[in-house]
Amino acid sequence: MPFIAKAVTAVAGAISATLAAGGIGAALLRIGGTLLLSTAAQALMPKPQTTMQPRTVTIREPVVPRDLVYGRARKGGVIVFLHASGSDNKFLDLVIVLASTRVQSIGAIYFEGEMALDAYGEAQGRWAGKVLVEKKLGGADQTAFAGLQADLPDKWTEDHRLRGCAAIRLRLTYDQDAFPGGIPNITVDIEGKDDIWDPRTQTAGYSENPALCLADYMGNPTWGIGARIGEPDGIDEMSLVEAANICDEMVPLAGGGSEPRYACNGVITLSEVPKTIIEGMLSSFAGRCAFSAGSWRIHAGAWRAPDVALTSDHVREGGLTLATRVTMSSNANGVRGQFVSPENDWQPDDFPAYASDVYLAEDGGGQKWRDISLPFTISAAMAQRLAKIELERARRQMTVRLSGKLSAWAATVGDVVTLSYDRWGFAAKPFEVHGVSLDLTASGDGALLLPELVLRETSPLVYDWSASEEQIYAAAPRTALPNAYDIPAPGAPQVTEDLYVTRDGGGLKVLAKISWEAAPSGFVAAYQMQAKPEGGANWIDHGRTDGTTLEIRDIAPGNWAFRVKAISVLGVSSPWQETQAEILGLTAPPAQLENVTLQTAGGLAILKWMRSVDPDVRVGGNIVIRHSKEATATWADSYSMDRVSGGEAIAVVPLKPGTYLVRAEDSGGRAARDPCHHQGRAGAGLLDPGLSAGRSWFCWCKNQPAGDRVEPDACHGDCERCDTGLYDGGAVRLCCRARSRCGETRALAIRNWRGGAGTQRSDRCPHGADGHLGGF
Questions:
Q1: Is residue 193 scored above 80 in pLDDT?
Q2: CB of 10 within 8 A of CB of 3?
Q3: Which of 257, 252, 247, 265 is nearest to 208 (CA)?
Q4: 746 near 737, Cβ under 8 Å?
Q5: Residue 272 region, left (φ>0) first, then alpha (ψ -120 to 50), else beta?
Q6: Could you report the per-residue pLDDT of 286-297, keeping only the tens digit for each?
Q7: Cα–Cα distance, 765 to 520 (Å, whole number)
Q8: Distance (Å, rounded) from C-alpha 655 to C-alpha 688?
Q9: Do 745 and 702 touch, CB atoms closer than 8 A?
Q10: Predicted model pTM
């Protein structure tokens, strides 16, 4: 027998005894009995103050209240087993209980809000290969976790079955990148209780229908109130079927599609008192629940045709009291609040508030909000419908207290009735019965129990809804914080090499410089670089740096693989970025010498060049000088003239006609690919020592000693310049000029010359073979 029925029986017994005594004692008992019986028959209303409890936390405590899950939820659990095993405690096994009943399904598993395993148990992202899972739905006949029993037979046996509890077993394999902060917070997608009885189909199963979920909770003798469907002192089946049908009605959505009118999706903690739990579940369907006439009646938030018509004939003399308005502090012209948002990672979030411009104007333009919490609602559209019902109910403020005759007993809590009273202008005005109390009235030698009703005006408009009234909910825009567990990779490493002289200056080593672009993340604290030679089995770690370059000294020549990754302040690593490169080192040929020039002095050729840029030439290397008489000189047809230290930048050799070739040679005997050429005079002479490779100009002036070279800016106005071209080993236009004073004032002779033959001369040159050809 429910506790309320027992209380009524106890009070009724006390009434008979006390009335016999009569007097003030009887009056006091009448008042106390009215209060108690009023509480017994009071409708359980959805309370807007129901709190939003945190659900997405997994805890480890010795004693924890059990949870029930109705519909869909994402929640944490209670760690009931924790054990480390393997070398260096590599493996960590956990058993987490999620619910205290059998559930429909256990879905994806999340670590710190990020999916770690999908609904099929496949590890994702950085947890791939690091997490294993076993699931138990909480059946009465379920067996122990087979994997855990095999891995830890001395810790988890076949007797550890967790019957009646939905649970998961996780095996975590340690990895710094996967678990930088130790054991993560674990949450799980779950579809809850799957044995909910539906009297419409006479079957039990999973349901999100809030009326059926409430009846399931209330009917449980262990944690509910033992009010079974259709049984004495239980839940009235007819009202339950009506409420369930209302909840299943489909409602169109503003964004297209439809959804059930009401749904229940949430978590119950069994440490809460039944009244609080029932009120929270009622909030999901704007419901009413009251004990009347020996049974519990459940009503969903929808318009119902009046059941009873009340008139003045049902009222005792002076038995009507009217309150037309509520206090200003209780009034509201808008409703706002929170629901559980799947789009917001199943955290409480504000749904679009519902407000009325009409009511705002009635209240003088001052916005007054009523705040509600909907812990069993996960749809923003559904939350708005519930908010509108809350507001419309609040604006129907007319309340009537009716002291009725025996005929008024036809009205029970939760009914919709009409009241006709000409004095107040009521003509079948609809009211909802919010409360029924019993008034113990003396009648002769006996007593009468007469009803006292509390009526609140209502209207079909309270439950009217159009999709056009819905405001589209969007979790964004909201602060998009960077993910400290998702570190992007840096740029691909770029490899350059160089040589360096050892500290004592006695040898050369190879240096590889690896650089990369920084990873685009503010959480990066360092970069780690590794290298591996071709054919190597293991990567060689070369340390960490907070910059974007790192040097590897004394690296061996050959093909190498280099890779770099970013590491966050939490120790989480990015993917590796890898590249291949060949290290030439000391095997690389020296660079060609630059700025080579030739000068003459007393039968000697003075060769100069810029000092070699290669350390292995400067240290232990040489500069090789060769000479060729061929018109087109090559290294192969030349002969050696001298060899100087690689650190030198000048050499003096005999002056000879032909071409000088100069090339660097490193300490290993490897020579530069291309030697530098300098060409001497054709026939009897050398290149004019004042000329250098490139374009040069000659000028011959009258009254100027023959054979003297005059720079262009020193020529007189009657001098003629000679057209010249760049020497390229082929034909070049050359100037011919006299070797000795001749007194001639004619223009210079011009002829093409291909080198080698010194007998070519200009027909206009008066000195024949005594003339010479200038070169470039």
A1: yes
A2: no
A3: 265
A4: no
A5: beta
A6: 998 888 878 899
A7: 76
A8: 12
A9: yes
A10: 0.67
